Amino acid sequence: MARVGSRRVRLARSLGRLLAVGLVAGLAWAGGLVWFANAIPRPPAEESADATRPTDAIVVLTGGSGRLGTGLDLLTAGRARKLFVSGVYEGLDVQELLRKSRQSPSDIECCITLGYSADSTIGNAYETADWLREQGFRSMRLVTANYHMKRSLLEFRMVIPDVEVVPHPVASPNVHLEDWWKWPGTASLLVTEYNKYLLTLLRYELEMLLES
Predict the structure, then answer these.
(1) Which region is the signal sequence (predicted)?
(2) CATH 1.10.760.10 fits domain 45-170
């Protein structure tokens, strides 16, 4: 009986430790989520000094509202020599893309390149890296959603560490960052993006460790 009692005590202690570790991990995750949400750029951050600084290229990651229009406006304003749109679906050409964006094809068609191979943020980074090397460009302005920017910058840093990347976040009207926890759609989006960012950060740290 004494042995059985001792085993139960050890089991209870082990479960207690596991619960404590789980509680600490959960609190750390939740605290990180709050930090992540608060660190997302809000307007007028998009109108910072970096917004007017020229770069060799503008790169737009498809997948969200306002990104392409912002990229085209930046190109028209002369913020870069060329625009690269990464992650475009097969069959879409530049003229159709400009028509969808209500832009005149004759004005800027010659300065736009579409990338069709990327289907993820990692793919965006590699597809863009190949194009930048072909063009001989050393700086780029990255246009993507504000909540997606932190992970995108990390992915691009791993693939093209020698290229200067200027962030240009775009705010979506459908993502409510103020009191985000009150909006189920926004909360779900931020939790998903935060988890993806943590996995990307883990990959980044492992790569740095292996290279050191």
Answers:
(1) none
(2) no
